[in-house]
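ok, trying the design again with the full structure, not the truncated one.
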C-alpha cells in the first residue's frame, strides 16, 4: 500500500517536472518567436548621417531588434523594397513614388533631408547659369534626382539641356563622380553632400559654384523634399504606434546631430558612413537635415512630384501618388 503510494507520488512528481519544463520551454520559444529583426535600409550620405544618434541609442523597436543597413546608392536599397526585406527604407522621393505606383507596399513616413545638391568644380569664372553655355557637365545617372533637377533648372534659366550644354554620365555613382571631380577628370559636376566636403578635402581648388537648392527655391518658391523615409504598409497598419516611436526617435536623432556636429562626426566615422571626421564635421551643416513627418508636408511633396511629372511622367512612375502614399497614424 505504502509502496503503491510512493510509486504514485513519484509518478506525479515526474509528470509535474516534465510539465514544468515543457511550459518553460514553450515560454522561451514564444519569446523567441516574438523577437524579430526589423531592417532599416539607409544611405551612406545625409540620410545615414541623420540616423547616427538613433543607431547608437535605439537598438530595439518594441520587442524587435533594429538592424541598420547602410548602402552606397539608392539602387542598392531598391531591391530590398521590391523584395519586402526592409521594414523602413530611405530612397529619393521620386523613387518612392515610382515604387508606390508599381504596387510595392511602402508608404512615405517622413522627409529627413531637404536638398544637398551643388554644381561643383574648380572654375571660379562660373558665377551663374549663363556661364555654363557650351560647357560639359557631369552627372551621376540619367533620370535620377540630380539629373532631373539640373535639367529643370537649366531650362528655367534659359538653357537647352540638349543644345546649350553637354551632359555627361560617364561616372554612374556618387562616389565615382566625386572621385573624378577630386582628381580633375570631371571639371564640372553635380554632386551632393557629403561628397562635396570629401572632394574639397582632397582637392582644395574645388568649391561649390551654384547651389541647386537655392536655385530651386528661387524658381519654385519651395524647398526640396529630396529624401523619403518609407515604411512597409503591413507593419504600419498593424503597428502604427511603433512607427510613431521610430519617427520620434529619428526626429530626435536629426536634432541631435545638427546641435552636436563635433560629436556627431565621430559617430559618422564609427558607423562607417565616412572615414574622415573632418569631412563629416564640415558636411553636417550643408546636409540640410530637417525631419518632417509625411502628413505635415504632404502638399510640398505633391507639388515637388508634380514638377517632375510635368517634365516626364515616368520620373514619378506615371502618375502622382494618391492619398494612400502617405502614412497617417
Amino acid at each position: 500500500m505504502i509502496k503503491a503510494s510512493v510509486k504514485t507520488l513519484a509518478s506525479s512528481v515526474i509528470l509535474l517536472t516534465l510539465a514544468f519544463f515543457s511550459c518553460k520551454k514553450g515560454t522561451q520559444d514564444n519569446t523567441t518567436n516574438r523577437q524579430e529583426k526589423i531592417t532599416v535600409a539607409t544611405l551612406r550620405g545625409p540620410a545615414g548621417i541623420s540616423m547616427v544618434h538613433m543607431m547608437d541609442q535605439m537598438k530595439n523597436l518594441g520587442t524587435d531588434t533594429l538592424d541598420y543597413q547602410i548602402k552606397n546608392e539608392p539602387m542598392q536599397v531598391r531591391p530590398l523594397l521590391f523584395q519586402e526585406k526592409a521594414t523602413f527604407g530611405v530612397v529619393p522621393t521620386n523613387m518612392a513614388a515610382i515604387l508606390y505606383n508599381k504596387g510595392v507596399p511602402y508608404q512615405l513616413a517622413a522627409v529627413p533631408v531637404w536638398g544637398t545638391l551643388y554644381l561643383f568644380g574648380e572654375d571660379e569664372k562660373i558665377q551663374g547659369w549663363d556661364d555654363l553655355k557650351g560647357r560639359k557637365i557631369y552627372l551621376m545617372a540619367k533620370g535620377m534626382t540630380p539629373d532631373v533637377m539640373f535639367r529643370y533648372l537649366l531650362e528655367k534659366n534659359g538653357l537647352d539641356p540638349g543644345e546649350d550644354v553637354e551632359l555627361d554620365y560617364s561616372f554612374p555613382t556618387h562616389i565615382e563622380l566625386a572621385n573624378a571631380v577630386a582628381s580633375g577628370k570631371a571639371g564640372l559636376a553635380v554632386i551632393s553632400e557629403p561628397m562635396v566636403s570629401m572632394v574639397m578635402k582632397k582637392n582644395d581648388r574645388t568649391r561649390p559654384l551654384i547651389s541647386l537648392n537655392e536655385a530651386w527655391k528661387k524658381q519654385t518658391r519651395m524647398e526640396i523634399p529630396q529624401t523619403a523615409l518609407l515604411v512597409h504598409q503591413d507593419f504600419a497598419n498593424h503597428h502604427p504606434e511603433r512607427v510613431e516611436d521610430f519617427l520620434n526617435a529619428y526626429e530626435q536623432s536629426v536634432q541631435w546631430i545638427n546641435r552636436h556636429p563635433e560629436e556627431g562626426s565621430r559617430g559618422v566615422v564609427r558607423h562607417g558612413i565616412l572615414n574622415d571626421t573632418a569631412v563629416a564635421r564640415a558636411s553636417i551643416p550643408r546636409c540640410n537635415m530637417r525631419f518632417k513627418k509625411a502628413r505635415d508636408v504632404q502638399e510640398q511633396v505633391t507639388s515637388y512630384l508634380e514638377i517632375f511629372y510635368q517634365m516626364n511622367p515616368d520620373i514619378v512612375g506615371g502618375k502622382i501618388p494618391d492619398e494612400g502614399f502617405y502614412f497617417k497614424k
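Keeping the full-length input from now on. The mean pLDDT is 89.
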